[in-house]
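Hey,
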Amino acid sequence: MTTLKQRLRADLTVALKARDEVTLATLRMALTAVQTEEVAGKQARELSDGEVVAVLTREAKKRREAAEAFAAAGRVELAERERSEGEVLARYLPAPLSEQELTELVRAAIAEAGATEPRQMGQVMRLLQPRTAGRADGRRVSEEVRRQLASG
């Protein structure tokens, strides 16, 4: 079984041979971000697939935010480039949670934590973060938790 990092490297070689500039640049950037994360801290280490997904999720979020900023500034071509890079990264990320799946996960976490009021949001979020990592934006998760605790 190949690791996600090995898959990124293999796809980089394919993009190089195919002269796919956007994919090539995006995968180089992603691998650089992974390598930077590996040497961060006191000791260099090999990242697990989950940690690589976290790095790719962070990079994809940067692309989304940059695309929004460029679009708001009227820089359409730069916004399109950022969106294209985001699409390349999305190929390596788990499928995002639908609204219904997120609602069910939040409902189950609230029941598991025994939370009944908004002050207990932290307990629920601690349960949800590992379950939604890379599949839902943290803001989206916290808004759903807040909504369910306020109505429940």
